[in-house]
């Protein structure tokens, strides 16, 4: 029989965070380092994220910067199914077409205006788009391709977005398609996009050099 | 055999929103009115919520005002597991101890500072609390009692919170315990709170008259 | 490539219980110690709980005693989403207002009678209550505040309850609000309950000294 | 645009139960009749099940009687993932080998003793069994074949069981295999059970006439 | 009180398929027409799909043809979380880069060879690819961009794929990005793909005219 | 505070497969050996399963052979909820009545014909059966007893089946009931199947000696 004394106490907070002293290597549970439930503190549910501060968008070719607070940033989010992000947009900047494989997104505009949209599945591929002003809210359903664009040539924009997963993932379409490492065969992409292979090669050269989130 | 032609087309977006013309009464699915998938538009994923605008906190005895954007406000959220809220706090105002029966919450401070916390389950009932400044982030795990308090006697505070359900629900502890309709027997409450029944009666009188969310 | 020989066999019962010999410290999975699937026996699905025996209710200020059989008691419950409890009520005893953050409860009365109820979410906060006789059944939906009270001044009562989680958690409202460790600021509680801070201080003194489930 | 006024209010209790007046035929949601959320009362979470009363086991060839309280009996259980049962066993009676396709079961003995067990999946097919006395608890994991048998030739036994679904389903192996309507081909069963077809035919004759739960 | 007689019996198969005679318009549940559980037959779990027969790939610009058996084809799949597909590939044909917003895919090659791959999320965007021969198996995790390409210039290829949803959805990247209706602003796409707007316009012209799955 | 540097990077693919170097014993997560996310390759999502090759059915008393590709075979399937199988049937061979405790199955015939069926839950126990020809598709809902039989006395048959779990489990009814180790008491089985104990003993002797999947 399994002695009940051999169980560590499971504390009130679902053992979201636990730790295990085993030599120097930490143990992963659900892909994350664990912490002794008794050692959990308020800090494990907190991040000094400075989501109020503008982020630099100059390093981004597309003019945006996503600051995501997910389970890699707040260990206590593990299993809890939610994360939060601030997105900064340069004038004419955008969060280019992308998907979240494991989350729906709900977004509100803090500053400026945003032209946003998502495209439905095959075969319709309908675009649902909207120009959002400050304080307005839009929803991007799980797994669908969506984007936000700041149409103002002079002013930046800012949004807060929430996602229905502690680890939503993000796949920027252009980067994933033309900038994967290694590259997808240009035969495949030329046929998919109905273009010449040299066009694909040129596109891949753009993204290979500078593939960041 | 079921003729396949008798199925309405299931559009790309999961038939989140559908509608059914049946006499005058609408049909509920998942508790909500349905809409013909073909009639779904971007408006079903949008709300002109004005989350950028300060809300009046004067009508609230506790000095706060929660503006929740859930599936009752954006029909397209149905089944998608997320909602968003703006919370305004008067100077010394609070979002009093409450729980969300079906959601975890992640919150960031837009303006001011907030003293926030949650209490773990029996038997520990540990308080995890923190004073949050602008831009900082905190997580309140599903079903646990939590609160936010604006300790500043002069300035209001504002937060944005996301919840991991399209219909998270909220239960203000004081109102649910002392202000339910009808009232919980004062025998029950006197013993639970270890006070005289007349104390319970007095508390119930406070909440009966003014029970709002 | 990952050699298939490097996988331990996953036995028929979902590896609910597994164990790992690593120095002296056990490994947690899902927050629990693991056991080698091959070493699992009927004992891992069994507890000599003596749920037929009356429990002492004298140590409880509120006159009740909950004997919960969850995953901490039966390791084999891990991931299976259910637990079982016996609740003893002294004459005029009660299981005071509480919530289960992760479970719905279904209860039947074995002995005596019980006045039971739950309160719905904001803004209605409707009380659904009922006096249950022996053999009758009541449901308390997930996350809602509920209670059971034995109105009989002479006879004890007994109930069996089942919960839809292997680790439902329980939050006694009075204890969590007034007896947390450390205490919630009396500023917060005074405003929430619409009472003087000295009333809060007095309540906190009651619960701080004796906070058990 | 979908007018928000066209949504019925979604009350605090998840619209577990709703109703729709449409001609004479009721509307099914999740397979059940719906009720207007505003019309929900405590009765929708209650059943006068008389689970304290012995059930007749004389009508049963196997000497048992299962009284299940599921969503067909308590409408308020819809979506909440739990149900409760009382099982009566005649002397030497049994709840014969069966599975629940959608639920784990946890059981405690109220009266008498029970020899209980479950069999793990292929290829091991290990039997985990135990003789339970009054007050002891056993778990039957989801989908596995299990049984309870009252080994006492003189005294009845009684158990309370909880299941992790509001509609767990039950499949009595002998009845489903030999008593289905219409019958499974005896070619199939003769080969499966490694017996002559006439043996299968004889078994099918037993169950065809008397197939009840 | 809700009379239990007002509930239709919930049959053993989860009321996967039900139907409701209400004037001429059918009622949707979970987005699908419902059928009286008593009227369900084996036909509701069957499709004469002819998945053994080669499909024409000549109508497809990319040289492939997906025959998907999902809940729109077999009503009985509702809520059961799985679907099946046959995919035909012309010589040098491909199932171009696409995602399934709600499903993982597992595929095996029936005829020919396939160069297959998927790209991981930001920021790595690693390509995991493999040339599959007849009988080999590959997995494409939920929501990730993936493709299959028949590298043989003379022979067709065939695969069978299973998906972990009764309605997985599919989003062909090129069609969704360049062929949505209406089109995504070329400002957005030019910046996202780091190309001239006229290149975008030209691409959009390709896909607008011929956008099918 | 938990240093964020103590977290291993969670790669894009959900850390489906991870590994931990701890002395000689591997760590189980979700019952499986883990692999460093950085070390994951395409091979972790691949199996050279040769599902195109006929399997020997001569070793099987019932004339069938199931080749299952689940998470034990492809580590990358962990958490993804799907698996795939090839089933070979000898002339007059069968996949005897069995259940999958955690999965629905969808099947298509590659070669030959199959008489297939499933039986619904108590109390109806309706048999839904069908003779399937090449290319046709059938669904077996989760947890229900089902079978496939090759009625052709001369030709083998082949099917491909997909299951909605990475570890569906399988319980062959005859083997689990009459061939468990140790055996179920013949008192229990004699009553359940309404036969003499000596018949049960004889059946148990058949299965005890040769219990394989």
UniProtKB/TrEMBL annotation, chains A, B, C, D, E, F:
SUPFAM superfamilies: RmlC-like cupins. Oxalate binds at residues 95, 100, 105. Belongs to the germin family. Mn(2+) binds at residues 98, 100, 105, 146. It catalyses: oxalate + O2 + 2 H(+) = H2O2 + 2 CO2. GO terms for cellular component: apoplast; cytoplasm. Residues 1-23 form the signal peptide. GO terms for molecular function: manganese ion binding; oxalate oxidase activity. This is Germin-like protein. The keyword Oxidoreductase applies. Keywords: Apoplast, Cell wall, Cytoplasm, Disulfide bond, Manganese, Metal-binding, Oxidoreductase, Secreted, Signal. The keyword Ligase does not apply. Residues 57-201 form the Cupin type-1 domain. Produces developmental and stress-related release of hydrogen peroxide in the apoplast. May play an important role in several aspects of plant growth and defense mechanisms. InterPro entries: Cupin_1, Germin, Germin_Mn-BS, RmlC-like_jellyroll, RmlC_Cupin_sf. It is found in: Cytoplasm; Secreted, Cell wall; Secreted, Extracellular space, Apoplast. It comes from the Eukaryota.
């Amino acid at each position: 029989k399994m002695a009940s004394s051999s169980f560590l106490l499971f504390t009130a907070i679902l053992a979201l965070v636990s730790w295990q002293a085993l030599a120097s290597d930490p143990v992963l549970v659900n892909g994350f380092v664990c912490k002794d439930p008794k050692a959990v503190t308020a800090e494990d549910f907190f991040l000094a994220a400075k989501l109020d501060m503008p982020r630099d968008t100059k390093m981004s070719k597309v003019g945006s910067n996503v600051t995501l607070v997910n389970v890699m940033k707040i260990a206590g989010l593990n299993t809890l199914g939610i994360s939060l992000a601030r997105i900064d947009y340069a004038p004419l900047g955008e969060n280019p077409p992308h998907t979240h494989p494991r989350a729906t997104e709900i977004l509100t505009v803090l500053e400026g205006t945003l032209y946003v949209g998502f495209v439905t599945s095959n075969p319709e591929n309908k675009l649902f788009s909207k120009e959002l002003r400050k304080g307005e809210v839009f929803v991007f359903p799980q797994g669908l391709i969506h984007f936000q664009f700041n149409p103002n040539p002079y002013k930046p924009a800012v949004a807060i977005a929430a996602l229905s997963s502690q680890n939503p993932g993000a796949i920027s379409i252009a980067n994933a398609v033309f900038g994967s490492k290694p590259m997808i065969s240009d035969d495949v992409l030329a046929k998919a996009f109905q273009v010449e292979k040299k066009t694909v090669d040129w596109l891949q050269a753009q993204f290979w050099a500078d593939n960041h989130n």
